[in-house]
Design goal:
- The chain is α/β, with parallel strands linked by helices.
- It has helices at 2-26, 57-60, 76-90, 104-114, 128-133, 160-168, and strands at residues 45-47, 54-56, 66-71, 95-100, 120-124, 140-144, 150-155.
- The radius of gyration is 21 Å and the shape is elongated.
- Strands 5-4-3-6-7 form a 5-stranded mixed sheet. It has a two-stranded antiparallel ribbon with strand order 1-2.
- The protein is built from 6 helices and 7 strands.
Length: 171
């Protein structure tokens, strides 16, 4: 009986390993949560990048559809997607930029270096706005309709095809 007691921790560890392995095999790592799609955009007020003035997100997204892009200067994929945002801006697509967990001077330097495609630049220093939207990591882009409803979400850098698919959901 004493021998079995000595092996109890190993048996428990093996059972936990089987439990976690079974969960991991059934879980799709490419699934990105879209919990906010089909719901109203969160009522948020964030500081504007240049002035620091509190700005209601609903005020800068009026006249939608609008893209709300969460980005950061420290994010390499954000730099990869930036030319696509510039191209969308050149096509007349209204894009609101939300600097996620980034220092305003770093954000400003990023936009000065790469160009500024945003109709409004807001700062989410703490990441609270990202939590409200359901951001899982930057870059993420949300399509917001003229009624303030979130119509679609794209996770990762926007490509021309992904941008076209996203904008098609506004039509």
């Amino acid at each position: 009986m004493k021998r079995w007691l000595a092996f109890t921790p190993l048996i428990v560890l093996a059972a936990l390993a089987l439990l976690f392995a079974g969960y991991a095999l059934k879980r799709d790592p490419k699934v990105s949560p879209h919990a906010m799609v089909g719901k109203p955009m969160p009522a948020l007020t964030l500081p504007e990048l240049s002035s620091g003035q509190p700005t209601a997100l609903k005020d800068v997204t009026q006249g939608g559809p609008v893209l709300v892009n969460f980005f950061a200067s420290w994010c390499a994929p954000c730099e990869i997607e930036h030319p696509q945002l510039m191209a969308l801006n050149a096509q007349g697509v209204k894009i609101i930029g939300v600097a996620y967990k980034d220092a305003p001077p770093n954000t400003q330097a990023f936009l000065t270096r790469l160009g500024d495609p945003f109709a409004a630049r807001l700062v989410d220093r703490s990441g609270a706005a990202g939590l409200e939207f359901g951001v899982t990591g930057v870059p993420e882009t949300y399509l917001v309709g003229s009624d303030g409803m979130i119509l679609a979400k794209h996770t990762g850098p926007l490509t021309p095809d992904a941008a076209e698919d996203l904008l098609a959901k506004a039509r």
